[in-house]
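Narrative summary of target 7.
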Amino acid sequence: MPTTVQLENVSRLFGTFAALRKISLTLDAGRCYVLLGENGAGKSTLLRVMAGLLRPSYGTVRVLGQDPEQVRDRIGYMGHAPMLYDEYTAMENLQYFASLYRTRTCLSGEEALRSVGLDPALGRPIGQYSQGMRQRTSLARVLLSKPELLLLDEPFSNMDIGSAHQMLALLERIKGQQRTIVLTTHQRELAAPLADAMITLVAGSVDSIQSAGPAQKL
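Modeled conformation, tokenized:
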């Protein structure tokens, strides 16, 4: 199976604080990896390192065989902030973000919105959307460039259970397209049906990896 992400002894320091400590992981194409851990365990930092938004202090990171900064247009990153303009409609937002991809063929705004179950003709500004609709619009923004690696930081945050299950169904469909998904969540039971492996971080280190079998303590 092709490898999407390879991390070898990755550490990330902020001053004297080690947010990540000697993490080594191999993530394969077409699989979903769920990062678990308490606040401050390093989940968001690890996503940002994979996205090329942070450089590791030590160790090496390869995404699709290259430095993450060289393949950013093949990586979709959704952080805590929705990265949307509240005064614009969903379509206006996506048209703007699509214009930023100069060298990559993107989905149309209509295609991206329909892929997440939203009506492209909806004329309300984003500021009037429910949290579930905002999250789905943010995911549509991520999907515009047809990324091969999706990095999602708390995609179910502040969603009601119905919206969360809609998001799960969307991610299941995306995974079926042989894309790799890495997401963080505090809702282990919610993400379990989607996960091929659950990776628990404790104090910046990989504590265990749980796949189809019992958890492996590292």
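The two ends are 23 Å apart (CA to CA).
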